[in-house]
Amino acid sequence: MSYVKGLKCKECGHRTAISPVHVCEACFGPYEVEYDYAAMAGKVTRESIARGPKSLWRYKDLLPVDKPVTGFHSGFTPLKKADRLATELGVKQLYIKDDSCNYPTYSYKERVVAVAISKAVEFGFKTVGCASTGNLANSTAAHAAQAGLKCYVMIPHDLEQGKVLGSLIFGPQMVRIRGNYDDVNRLCTEIADKYGWAIVNVNLRPYYTEGAKTYGFEIAEQYGWQLPQHTVVPTAGGTILPKIYKAYQELITLGLVEDNKPKVYSAQAAGCNPVVKAIQKGVDIIEPQKPNTIAKSIAIGNPADGYYAYQCVTKSGGYGESATDREIIDAIKLLAKTEGIWTEPAGGTTLAATIKLLQSGRIPKDESVVISITGNGLKTQEVVADELPYPRVIDAKMTEFDELLEETRRAQSEPEPALVGA
Ligand SMILES: *Cc1c(COP(=O)(O)O)cnc(C)c1O
Ligand SMILES: [Zn+2]
């Protein structure tokens, strides 16, 4: 049973049938999937969802896919109560939605890719591709390999080695392009038109973006079928933020959660913050930027859905904050030390922005807060390599160990360790 009605233009409301199109033929606005919520009443329930698999497909009724082909182990990542970090920040109820452990390529992108690849197969495509800042390439390549599709991944030339190898291992055709993500994306739009491939985040964008809702559905379900008052979300192309908000609104519409007027906040790097700038100015014009930040996975200077990210943040009563490269690195280290989660700069950005939102009082410290961690630090080792000096080598002798222990104890001014039996 599918509840999908078709595609509907977000701008002019023009409707069209489900097909691999993304731009409205009437006004060039973006198409979005439209559902029959009335038909879901009494059928899509907390119980029906709980009976589903422990993957993003447990929300299949709210996704535009008839037959999933990948992603059977993607999604349903932990919502972790972050008590040690909460104490550090002086917050009462703090949670981490942790997609750094999402399967199989360790980022939130599995959600959008599983939906897009399944849809590509339904449409009969044999070749898929993407324009990517790294994580999307990893995920598209892995899911394409699983589905037996030919795959082209298009990336900026200067990505981290972990992101490059993290795609190449799955055997796609990789195209490294001189320029930034916005140059890559422009070329990809032309490629999709000329060769008729399924570029997941271009011509399959209406389906791709729907996958991001599962991040929001999971937060609600894992929080005991309620919504956190504040959700802080990184913003790159502007897919995930509006879709988390849409997920919350859909659950409210279906009566599965109470409407507590949840607020969403955008986090960006100071070196690429077109959406946050617009939010802070209160002007709904996203001025394109030339990115310059270590947070490469969210370095999109001209975000496709930046306008919608702006709209959701302001409509919800949230705000936006950006973080410098220094603040991003410090936040990566803080999250690792307090919660045992190693995230990449996108996650560092989100935590750093949250800290600033708490300090400025935009987010009250006694209300519930979810921080969206969307990627894994193992892929971006270069950003912390110089931050973590290698320990010196000792011989395998007790005297050398004692000496080393004494050295580190003094350096960290810790008390003398107790001896066993003393
Ligand atoms: C892609 C990505 C995002 C967000 O991108 P949107 O295009 O705004 O959805 C956030 N974090 C990481 C790690 C990503 O790879
Ligand atoms: Zn339109």
Would you give an account of this structure?
With 422 residues, this protein is an alpha/beta fold. The protein has 16 helices and 13 strands. The chain has helices spanning 37-40, 46-50, 83-89, 109-123, 135-147, 161-168, 181-195, 205-211, 213-222, 240-253, 274-281, 306-316, 325-339, 345-359, 382-385, 398-411; strands at 4-9, 15-16, 31-35, 79-81, 93-98, 127-131, 150-156, 173-177, 198-199, 230-234, 263-269, 320-323, 368-373. The strands form 3 sheets. It has a 6-stranded mixed β-sheet, with helices on both faces. Strands 8-7-6-9 form a 4-stranded parallel β-sheet, sandwiched between helices. Helix 4 (109-123) packs across helix 5 (135-147), helix 11 packs parallel to helix 12 (306-316) and helix 13 (325-339) crosses helix 14. The longest helix is centred in the first third of the chain and has 15 residues, at 109-123. The termini are far apart. The mean pLDDT is 97. The structure holds pyridoxal-5'-phosphate (PLP) and zinc ion (ZN). The site of zinc ion has 8 residues, from loops. Its cofactor is pyridoxal 5'-phosphate. GO terms for molecular function: L-serine ammonia-lyase activity; threonine deaminase activity; threonine synthase activity.
Question: Could you give a quick summary of the protein structure above?
Answer:
By secondary structure, this protein is α/β, with parallel strands linked by helices. It has helices spanning 37-40, 46-50, 83-89, 109-123, 135-147, 161-168, 181-195, 205-211, 213-222, 240-253, 274-281, 306-316, 325-339, 345-359, 382-385, 398-411, and strands spanning 4-9, 15-16, 31-35, 79-81, 93-98, 127-131, 150-156, 173-177, 198-199, 230-234, 263-269, 320-323, 368-373.
